[in-house]
Amino acid sequence: MAAQIVMDHNGDTRHYFNTEDVKALLTAETRFKKLTAAGFTAATRDGAGKATVTRVFNPTAEETLFIPRLVGG
Predict the structure, then answer these.
(1) Cα–Cα distance, 38 to 13 (Å, whole number)
(2) H or E element in which residue 41 lies
(3) Domains of the chain, residue spans
(4) At CA 23, angle to CA 63 and CA 19, rounded to 5?
(5) pLDDT truncated to tens, each residue of the chain (73 aa)?
C-alpha cells in the first residue's frame, strides 16, 4: 500500500491506496494535482528515508508527503 501524507494545521492526514487499482491511482493523482495547485510542496521518501521534492505524480512512490506553504509575518 502506498500512502499520501498531508500535513496541515490539524497535524497530518494519511491516504492509503493500492498501486494496482486503477481507480485508486486516479484518485491519488487527482489529490496530488489538487494539493500541489493549492501550494503544497510534494516530496517522496526512499527506503533510506531521504526526501526528494517532486512536481509530478509518481504512482510507484511508497510515500508522498505534502507540506503546506509557510506563511511568514
Answers:
(1) 16
(2) strand 41-45
(3) 18-73
(4) 35
(5) 999 999 988 899 999 999 999 999 999 999 999 999 999 999 998 778 888 999 999 998 999 999 998 777 6
**Residue whose cell numbers read 516530496:** 43
Are residues 53 and 65 in contact, defined by beta-carbon separation less than 8 angstroms?
no
Q: CA 13 to CA 36: how far, in whole Å?
A: 16
Tell me the three state secondary structure of residue 12. strand
CB 42 within 8 A of CB 31: no
Which cell numbers in the block locate residue 13?
492526514
Is residue 61 packed enough to be buried (19+ CB in 10 Å), middle (13-18) or exposed (0-12)?
A: buried
